[in-house]
UniProtKB/TrEMBL annotation:
Gene Ontology BP, a term: DNA transposition
UniProt protein name: IS4 family transposase
MF terms in GO: DNA binding; transposase activity
Transmembrane segments: none
Residues in Transposase IS4-like domain copies: 3-150
Pfam families, sorted: DDE_Tnp_1 (PF01609)
InterPro entries cross-referenced by the UniProt entry: RNaseH-like_sf, Transpos_IS4, Transposase_11
């Protein structure tokens, strides 16, 4: 069971169909590409519809399992005066409420920020990995991903101690510097004092709160 959030540059019905059918309950979500032609099959709600998309002969040649048409769900919302449309394979409105889907995609940019945080904070702005062999590169990448997610997991707990905040509203750089320092000191703390030190981590969450993110001045 999974959901993959794609950028609109990945719009390919062949790719999306293969992604969805190569496993159980594999879903996708991406912005509607400008100029996409579709037929409304039926309305699922206000600004929520089941649509039918036609595939091209070229796509079917490249993706032999691709049918002539695909059905997907199209959700439309107006955000800050601009109409936004997302397309998804999650067509059941009872299982997947439209508001939840749109809210989920609004956090997609956090994925991009995650890559930046790993590169800038954990890799200290290095342009390349240290490893020179394939096995070492894989090990280093998994190590960075594991460290990042462990730090993020602790930040989720820290944010939960603050009313109305999420982990994405805390500074990853400042929090990671603090957490790495504290964790590196744990071996020198007596076992009986460790629970108290861990609890203290959450109490420091307030100092890592970021200011509200401003709206984009110009289109990307």
């Amino acid at each position: 069971h999974s959901l993959t959030l794609f950028d609109k540059g990945f719009y390919s019905l062949g790719l999306l169909h293969a992604w969805q059918t190569t496993g159980s309950e594999r879903h996708w979500l991406l912005p509607l590409k400008k100029g996409t032609q579709y037929e409304v099959v039926r309305k699922l709600g206000r600004q929520d519809a089941l649509v039918r998309l036609k595939t091209s002969p070229q796509a079917r040649k490249k993706w032999p399992q691709l049918p002539e048409t695909l059905e997907a769900r199209l959700l439309t919302r107006t955000i800050n005066g601009k109409e936004r449309q997302v397309l998804t394979s999650m067509v059941d409105p009872m299982r997947f409420p439209g508001a939840d889907i749109v809210e989920l995609y609004s956090h997609r940019w956090e994925i991009e920020l995650g890559y930046r945080e790993m590169k800038h904070s954990l890799q200290q702005h290095r342009l390349t990995l240290r490893s020179k062999k394939a096995a070492g590169i894989r090990q280093e990448l998994w190590g960075v991903l594991l460290a990042y997610n462990l730090l993020r997991s602790q930040m989720v707990k820290m944010a939960a101690s603050l009313k109305g905040y999420t982990a994405s509203q805390l500074s990853f750089h400042m929090a990671s510097v603090y957490l790495i320092h504290e964790l590196s000191c744990m071996p020198y703390v007596s076992p009986g004092n460790i629970p108290g030190r861990v609890a203290e981590l959450e109490k420091q969450a307030g100092q890592f709160v970021l200011p509200a993110r401003r709206e984009r001045s110009y289109p990307r």
